[in-house]
Amino acid sequence: GALAEFGIEAGRAAGMTGVWVNGAKIAAIGVHISRWVTTHGFALNVSTDLAYFEYIIPCGLAGRPVTSMKKILSVAPDRSEVIAAVVRSFGKTFARRMMPSEVLCPT
User: Fold this and answer.
1) Which residues face 27 on adjacent strands?
2) Is position 59 annotated as part of the catalytic site?
């Protein structure tokens, strides 16, 4: 996956949502339903200031740490490189050829 391109071994945790690295959550998924419209997305902690998580119980998971790519790698990877890795991984996972949005929706 995308994190593996940066040397980070990540995966699922039994009974939990999101992406985990050594027991710490690095990515979350979300779904919102309102007025017959469903939206969804995900958040990947690249260079997130993790201090803010000390004041909340993220995702309702008390006692479960949160991590970031920056914390694991000691330096934040370039955001454009992370985006490119996520796009490649998405395409591979869903067996789809990924294209730049300007190709799909020219201005």
Assistant:
1) 19, 44
2) yes
CA torsion sign, 94 to 37 to 25 to 70? positive
pTM score, whole prediction: 0.85
Query: Which residues lie below 8 Å from residue 9, measured CB to CB, with a gap of 6+?
Result: 3, 21
* Active-site residue, selected from the candidate residues 13, 28, 59, 76: 59
Write out pLDDT tens, residues 26-50: 999 889 999 999 999 999 999 999 9
Query: Which residues constitute the domain of residue 66?
Result: 3-104
The count of domains in the chain is 1
Residue with tokens 């980070």: 8
| Residue among 47, 54, 39, 33 at smallest CA distance from 81 | 47
Contact 28, 43 (CB under 8 A): yes
C-alpha dihedral sign at 55, 20, 40, 91 = positive
**Domain of residue 77, CATH code:** 3.30.930.10
